[in-house]
Specification:
The protein is an all-alpha fold. It contains ten helices and no strands. The longest helix is centred in the middle third of the chain and has 28 residues, at about 95-125.
Length: about 180
């Protein structure tokens, strides 16, 4: 995996080939394919190893939780390993259902579960009323600005201001949801 990470940082996933990995590692083609069904699996293994699934966050307040979640994800998306490879990784996940499953189970799904846990914790604390929050939409609200800055980098940096602004917007959205009747 170290060779995959090295190539992804130096050349990007879109330029990575099995031959490049074989030259870097000195392993045989058969050995490579015994470990990784294809380059996409290797790339997502590198991402999972580097960034993990994200830790559960509980700051004691919904505002704090959303900000901590965003700060953690800003750190991930600002990292060159993610930022320089995300377009090709997303394309690969769209084209290969097995890679899509790796993306969802190993990266996106756990992060979305963190947001759901933050909402549930806020309800349990009595901080917000049980509401009709569309957690999937809230996750999209948090992720959208990060993706925009990585994929269409024309509007600013991936930094703490982005974490604060996007977490604040998400909090405003949650507070605007009506209570369940």
């Amino acid at each position: 995996m170290a060779a995959g990470k090295k190539v992804m940082l130096a050349q990007g996933f879109s330029s990575m080939t099995v031959d490049v990995i074989l030259r870097e590692t000195g392993v045989s083609r058969g050995a490579f394919y015994r470990r990784h069904p294809n380059l996409g699996h290797l790339a997502f293994s590198v991402i999972a190893e580097q960034f993990g699934k994200g830790e559960r966050i509980d700051t004691g307040s919904l505002a704090g939780d959303l900000l901590a979640i965003q700060r953690a994800d800003v750190a991930v998306f600002a990292d060159p390993l993610m930022g320089n490879n995300l377009p090709a990784l997303l394309e690969t996940s769209r084209a290969d259902p097995a890679i899509y499953d790796l993306w969802v189970q190993g990266f996106a799904g756990p992060r979305r579960a963190r947001v759901a846990a933050a909402i549930n914790a806020a309800i349990a604390r009595g901080e917000i009323a049980e509401c009709a929050v569309d957690v999937a939409f809230l996750c999209d609200l948090l992720l959208g600005p990060l993706l925009a800055r990585v994929l269409v980098p024309i509007s600013g940096d991936i930094d703490d201001k982005l974490a604060q602004d996007s977490a604040g917007a998400a909090l405003s959205a949650v507070l605007g949801y009506p209570a369940r009747k």
